[in-house]
Amino acid sequence: MTTRAGFVALIGEPNAGKSTLLNRMVGAKVSIVTHKVQTTRTRVRGIVMEGDSQIVFVDTPGLFQPRRRLDRAMVAAAWGGAADADVVMLLIEATRGVTEGVERILEGLAELGKGRKVALVINKIDRVQSEVLLGLTKDLNDRYGFDETFLISAERGHGVDTLRLWLAGELPEGPLLYPEDQISDLPMRMIAAEMTREKLTLRLHQELPYQMTVETENWEERKDGSAKVDQVIYVVRDGHKGIVLGKRGETIKSVSQAAREELTEFLGRKVHLFLQVKVRPNWLEESERYSEMGLDFKDGNE
């Protein structure tokens, strides 16, 4: 039996649907999905067995014009993830078409695409007319020599199986990189922190999405098979602490409940989740916080 295994990088603008596609491919939630841009901060790996091929997906942060240290570290992580991959998929949102951001990514691909397969994946095809789709496909293929083009809806699953089969056949022959039943190489502590951050982001909407981070401080396996998880939510101001806690602690309570339920379902066993909110005015400049997110602090330098 010949096995194949390799890395597939998913690149694109923020909110193009990368995390939704990754979760659809893996069949489990390994990447944070919200309607906010720039919610993916680290290179989340989702692992899929397709026949005798093991596809290791590298979900990168969205590529955008960075303004702050955290932004720069995220963009460096995105290009770094793509540079390590055997196959690169550029995900474009059909409704947005070729934006300035997409043009910048195409420029970057000119160098990055050398020596590796690059596929164009147009997402959210159910939201545009077929003529628009044909025009967009032609325009993008005129700008870059993609090896293959796929038209999909990550949310509904259309076209995803065909894409996965093609990827499986393009990977190099070799031994499996991970155990067959593993779905991500992220530590469970980090996945748990991401789940809580997602619930916070959804609950707080516009109020403080980027000036907040979640860390799993302690993880204790109990004799009854349950897990006790302590997490800290870091914010930069006292006022933010009040927003996260909410009136009479209602916000933090509902976030804790939603995160606990999702974590319990993910692990298939009972979870006791305890959240604390701490004010750390300079967390965006602390290297330890970046390490916890799987980013390189130095990548954020000007």
Description:
The chain is of the alpha/beta class and 302 residues long. It is 37% helix and 23% strand. The chain is built from nine helices and nine strands. Strands 2-3-1-4-5-6 form a six-stranded mixed beta sheet, with helices on both faces. α6 runs antiparallel to α8. About 2% of the residues have low confidence.
List low-pLDDT spans: 37-41
Measure the end-to-end span. 49 Å
Helix/strand order, N-terminal first: EHEEHEHEHEHHEEHHEH
The strand line-up of the biggest sheet is 2-3-1-4-5-6
Instruction: Look at the structure and give the mean pLDDT.
Output: 82
Radius of gyration: 20 Å
Q: Helix/strand-derived class?
A: alpha/beta
Strand fraction equals 15-25%
Shape: globular
Helical fraction: 25-40%
Largest sheet: 6 strands, mixed
Total strands: 9
Give the number of helices: 9
Short structural summary:
The protein is of the alpha/beta class.
Features:
302 residues; 9 strands; alpha/beta; globular
Helix-strand layout with pairing:
Layout lengths: L3 E9 L5 H9 L17 E7 L2 E7 L9 H15 L3 E7 L6 H13 L4 E7 L6 H14 L4 E4 L8 H11 L17 H17 L7 E10 L5 E9 L2 H8 L4 H18 L3 E9 L7 H6 L10
Parallel strand pairs: 1-3, 1-4, 4-5, 5-6, 8-9
Antiparallel strand pairs: 2-3, 7-8
Helix pairs in contact: 6-8
